[in-house]
Amino acid sequence: MAEHGGGPAASELEDGRLLKELETIHRTRHETLLHGSDDALATHTQRLKELEDEYVRRHPRRAPTAGRTRSGARARAAED
Fold first, then answer.
1. How far, in Å, CA of 40 to CA of 33, rounded?
2. Which of 31, 45, 74, 79 is deepest in the core (most CB within 10 A)?
3. What is the DSSP letter of 63?
4. pLDDT beyond 70 at 1
């Protein structure tokens, strides 16, 4: 597997590992934003983008949850 500073290349991860990597990086994002160095934040951002881009590439027709669409957001706003 090709390695770089942020772990294995996203394109080389099997689906389950890709999802686990995404869960982990999303969980650590806030802490990195608030308390990481500029270099740590840049590295985190780069890895996050790599993992998310790979997920979207593999799942281009993923079904969005109704509440996560513009029409769903409008419906929530109308309820308020």
1. 9
2. 45
3. -
4. no
Q: Identify the three-state secondary structure at position 37.
A: coil
9-53 pLDDT per residue, tens = 999 999 999 999 999 999 999 999 999 999 999 999 999 999 999
Q: Which helix (H) or strand (E) covers residue 7, if one does?
A: strand 7-8
Residues 6 or more apart from 22 whose CB is under 8 A from it?
Answer: 51, 52, 55
- Would you place residue 2 in the very low, low, confident or very high pLDDT band (cuts 50, 70, 90)? very low
Distance of CA 16 to the CA centre of its chain: 14
pTM: 0.78
CA distance 19 to 29: 15
Residue tagged 């419906």 (tokens): 75
